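Morning. Coffee machine broken again, so started the prediction first thing and wrote up yesterday's gels while waiting. Chain of 172 residues, entered below exactly as on the submission form.
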Amino acid sequence: MTQRVALATVLDRLAIDEVITGYAAAVDDGAWPEYRALFAEDGRADYRDAGGIEGPAEEMARWLAETMRLFPVRQHLIVNRRVRLEDLGGYPGDRAEVRADYLSPMRLDRAAAGPGSPGEADSGEAGSGRSGGLSPDFVTGGRYAFELRRTGPDWLIHRLTVHEKWRRAPGM
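Came back before lunch.
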């Protein structure tokens, strides 16, 4: 591998990492236009293994916007990222796969969930978004499978699949 190819590979890995981090930030911040912009035109996401739906990124952005309203405080972490770049005989190609684990703690919006929702007495400081030092209401963990493609100068998500391994919620 020449220095030029090695440098291009490092730059691709950094650009791909930026997409994955951007995904986590967009979901956590409820930045749905930014979420959509991370996907290729024909990009799709599959959340069925985590109790959700599957479809085009535009549809997923609308579904997440509605679903995540129940959890106004989100902070999910994407770790143990394994990036595999397409290899075209010693040169990087325009496709990549990323397998990465996630941990996703969330706080439930008591008003949106309705009276008698789990942990109602533990809501923390009203309206602050803070948990008052209490644990999250809902935590999931699993693995993401990202398929990315280079589109012009940018790397974009072509396919995202969520593989939920576990979840914890009050009463579970």
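The first helix runs from residue 3 to 29. Going to sketch it on the whiteboard this afternoon.
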